[in-house]
## 1
Amino acid sequence: MSFIMKLRWFFKERWKYYVLAIGLLIGVNLLATIPPKMIGNTIDHIRSGNLTVTTLNHTVLLLVGLAVLLYIMAYVWITTLFGNSALVEKVLRGRLLAHLTNMTPAFFQRNSTGQLMALATNDVLAIGQTSGYGVMTLVSTIVGASVVIIMMVSLISFKLMIAALIPLPFLAFVISKLGQKVRVRFLAAQASFGKMNDHALESISGIRVIRSYVQEDNDLTAFDQVTSEVMNKNKRVSILNALFQPLTSLIVGLSYSIGIGYGSYLVFHNEISLGQLVSFNIYLGMLIWPMISFGEFINVLQRGSASADRLDTALTQKADIVDVDKPVVVDLPKRIEMKDLSFTYPTANHPSLAHVSFELERGQTLGIVGRTGSGKSTLLKQLLRQFPIPPEKLLISDVPIEQIALHQVKSWVAYVPQEHLLLSKSIRDNIALGKHTASPDEIARAVEMASFTQDIEQMPEGLATIVGENGVMLSGGQKQRLAIARALLINSEILLLDDSLSAVDARTESRILQNIRKERADKTTLISTHRLSAVSHANWILVLDEGRIIEEGTHEQLMQFGGWYREQWDRQQMEASLDE
Ligand code: ATP
Ligand code: MG
């Protein structure tokens, strides 16, 4: 029942197709009852000696005609019904992806990639099966069984029907008990399938590290354990499935014995004819399929609703960042102001930012430096609105960021993350990620600003070179400059560079920074870095330590102050001169 509720929207939308398929399915079941009756009649004619060639011909022709008609009807209902299951799978996958794109990092910390992949594959498949094959088995059971029973009663004998069907309720009872177990075991199997996905993903993407630490065997052993678990859990499901089949044979066998035994008795006492007994046994045979169907239905339904539950759990998780009802419209981010902001990651127990305040006018540059783990990336990420923050702590043009529409904030910001993400597409498509329509000139400009032109000229196919999964065929510095070109292409109001020049040499770095300063003179830029030369030109510099600002000022002021910044600067200058 809960399955139907969860897919109500789909059944509502496609009800016409379901009516057509179910109607035809009922028709097929009804028509299929005619041949046994005709065969029974023919036998009675033979027995009484009044079978003529004409009636026999008629019968044979009718039987052939019926078979053809049934074939066509079956073709139509099968394609219609299973077309529905393919469609529901497609729609659900689309919904899932749309949902995932709306989710913030907190969601992905709770749900692993492998589990999400399991949802998109196995679970969606199970739901599709229930809405196609499941519907078919349900209709077959109800219609098949009731039609056969009606024929038995009206054409043959009520007494005989009751006697032969005595074992059936027992079957129904056992099947419903087994069904509940199937559900529990199937949920467990799906969960370990998700774990296996995770492991496979990590092994493949981490293959280089695994090899360099000679961990292949260990990894294989660990994977073997995971796959064994998947196998065992699936085995436990199939054991239950295997229990259904013999059970139906057993019950059908019992029914047959009663049918033949008690039926012969009735023929003997002239209550029914021999032909009726033959028809009755054919009808009994026709009950096998509805009974198997019923078992299958329970099975598929349990799996489908287990999967629908799993999918629902993922789909109903709300993003923790949503637009306010009436967003304030801000046309330009003229000022960015942080007011005593403290921030703790949802999964952490220590704040990663504590009492941070700064002001930044449009066109200015903010530098953020500090030891590793001091909160630089965390500070930059606040402008991406990935995590909820206390209200009125971060203002853009004096409007709290939480009151501005999400898409508006996102349209202002270009972000070059510390861990670059490249798609396995061409260099051109990777650069044009934020602006698919960019002209070759625009791309060339962005590439030039990121000091990436020469590298591209040396690539086998220039801009059309495919970079491989997450840019495997680029060097660290090339990946960084590609990511910078991508950000510069959209010429955004606010640019966030998170340690984005760490893998290029000092000279390239200063060339890129010069380009950025020139091109973005009236735009705002925030730069976090370990190399202080990257921010010495900034209008204001924050030095963070354990999420707090320990020093701040311009380069000159910080040099005069003589604290951490001064110390680092001197050391880095000395190292640089030694390198030369
Ligand atoms: P680095 O110079 O190494 O890039 P950083 O200054 O950018 O360091 P952050 O990445 O901002 O440092 O991390 C600050 C603190 O927040 C660290 O203690 C880190 O463990 C914690 N942290 C970062 N990301 C998360 C997260 N997603 N969940 C929980 N804690 C996090
Ligand atoms: Mg960082």
Note: The chain has a mean pLDDT of 90.
## 2
Amino acid sequence: MKKIFNYIDGKLVSAKNGDWIDNFEPATGEKYSLIPDSNAEDVEAAFIAAEKAFKSWSVRPVQERSDIMLKIASLIESKQQDLAEAESIDNGKPVDLANAVDIPRASSNMKFFATGILHYASESHQLNEVAINYTLRKPIGVVGCISPWNLPLYLFTWKIAPALAAGNTVIAKPSEITPMTAFLFSEICIEAGLPNGVLNIVHGYGPKVGAPITEHKGIKAISFTGGTKTGEQIAKVAAPMFKKLSLELGGKNPNIIFDDCNFNKAVSVSVLSSFANQGQICLCGSRIFIQEKIYEKFKSEFVKKVKKLTIGDPKNKETKIGAIVSKDHMEKVKSYIDLAQQEGGIILTGGGNRTIEGRCKDGYFLEPTVIEGLPYDCRTNQEEIFGPVVTLNSFKTEEEVLMYANSTKYGLSSTVWTENITKANRMAKALDAGIVWINCWLVRDLRTPFGGVKHSGVGREGGFNAFNFFTEQTNVCISY
Ligand code: NDP
């Protein structure tokens, strides 16, 4: 059985207690590897290594830090196919998706922040003839990066790349559900010559590894992506310790279709924004609001296209819907489909498991599910499901749909479909969301601020925002 190891002080090691956790392939339901069942002892070892490494990494010329990160990026590119296959096996996502999105984005993250740091300048302020101020931006120290299972290597690198580029050393914890590509990444770091202790990866359960990272007195900042409830727990621990905190949390994103939209584009992109990665992207539009005049036409075209999505073995090229990440998560999503029916929802397509014959007969497959007839304020329309389930809802006016869209506790992203630019801009301003896409979805420019409002998070990642988070400022004031 393949073993995944922690990466501590430049070495691949088991957990100190020698315990292991089973890792399952979602497409087959079979155990296929073992993960270290680490705890606070391993986090401490990682901390000692990271603290020592900080002394040299933080003062290393920025060009040298950048060069090592670029080497890591190019190794990711050269191992693209292997990494994509590993991500697909570990997560259940179609290998084509991992090949087109997850792995290229992981190397882009490394390249983007490795080169971005070369252009990161600080400010100076002149106070008349009295004094001049300049601002130093210093790395914080040892920082913690905790990431989820839905876009494993993509989100893992999105956090650690700016932290490392800015001169910090890192203790990172990937989700225990999808640890494989983070492990392969540690092998890449060794191959690229990343100095020992600069990045440490500790595998294991959230409460046994994530919590000790959050609680550790010497870890100065926590960058977390995951569920809102976990974010709340982390904030409760970290806030009284005055740690810097970046929280990227859950969403319940509205996808708003006005009757003056480009209809064909709105339908096909909505299929993607509903069901890409089995609906397990924090930015998926899970509540579709359609203006009354085109409701029936949109519903009919949308459902027709959803029915054509190929559900199957993630290894197959033609597969569009792979497996749900775990049995537990599949059960959670199914419980929401049951809830939707209890709340009066009508299932237009999907609604249950799909059995895939052959090697995937015991895999965790769910049909993409479309539901209508639910009030905007019911639980199905308010709580994050994070699976292949969307609701269709009709609206009459802009004011009405704004009220529906903003009615949840979340505010991550929104999508608006209209050919009227004035209306689009008005909506963008009025929506409670960190990101608004107009006539597109998931078009990403890594320089832009990324994050949510309300219970979708605190802080912004992306571009120089990430460097601002991973540095501490000192203002120096010099008298003339
Ligand atoms: P979780 O919150 O369950 O877990 C996220 C990470 O936190 C995992 O590594 C987890 O470990 C760890 N963790 C769990 N408990 C603790 C704890 N007490 N202290 C510290 N760390 C802990 O999220 P999921 O992995 O289930 O991911 C899905 C969620 O992530 C969804 O809500 C989704 O919306 C959100 N998300 C948000 C994004 C954004 O950018 N806003 C992007 C992607 C996802 P373990 O897995 O071992 O429990």
Note: The chain has a mean pLDDT of 98.
